[in-house]
Amino acid sequence: MPPSRIAPHAPVRAGNSQFGSPPSIHERLRQGTSLAHRDLERRLDLTGPALSASRYRRVLQAFYGFYEPLETRLRGAVTLALAAPPFELRARAELLARDLAALGMTSAEVARLPRCSELPEIASPAHLGGCLYVLEGASLGGQVIVRALAHRLDTPAGFATEFFVGDGARTGPRWKRVLAWLEQLAQRDAIDRDAIVDAARATFEVLAHWLQLRGVMR
Fold it and tell me: Among 97, 116, 178, 204, which is disulfide-ready with 210 (CB 3.0 to 4.6 Å)?
């Protein structure tokens, strides 16, 4: 299947200085990825009335197949001192594995799940920054999704939702640290800010394509 149709990228560049300070990297990332972000949320539709327990399980399986190999790649990049962030990388694939276990999958079954092989490129600090912007930002809406899941699936609060709960009350403070690091990264002389935005968009596109292949996108 072809990747999801996301509008061509129009680089978000700093405006004329007479109108004020150039936009922060967060503003550029938010604007540059807004279409891809909305498209993914709309087509995944985790808070809508059509969500079923079986579809939720398939969504978690697909997410595991994306996060597990990508997190391995990210850890390798940080080990090579590509641009090590001042915060620990979260092993969200482990949270997904625990949720799938709560839904009845054995560890052997989880280990056999298909893995995404066409991952976002992580070959520069800009690539790392753009990818982490997407992965870390994805946790911000977790609490909303958790409440919707408990209502739609008629399950106890917190059941099989460790991935979406994520860092819980620490999510906001962690996000501020991520944004501060991204701004520092973007200030480096050798960093192309447009490359950070392009990497974030590429991460959204690869994820959307993978979820489409796994049959969980609408």
Answer: 116
Tell me the average pLDDT of the chain: 87
Residue 74 counted as domain residue: yes
Give the integer Cα–Cα distance in Å for 184 and 81.
16
- For 30, how many CA atoms within 13 A lie in the half-sphere containing its CB? 7
Tally of domains within the chain: 1
Model confidence at 170: pLDDT above 50: yes
What are the pLDDT digits (tens) for 110-162?
999 999 999 999 988 999 999 999 999 998 888 788 888 888 888 887 899 99
User: Tokens at residue 170, please?
Assistant: 């620490």
The answer to whether residue 97 is domain-embedded is yes
Query: Which run of H or of E encompasses 109?
Result: helix 107-111
Neighbours of 205 (CB within 10 A): 20
User: Which domain CATH number covers 199?
Assistant: 1.20.910.10
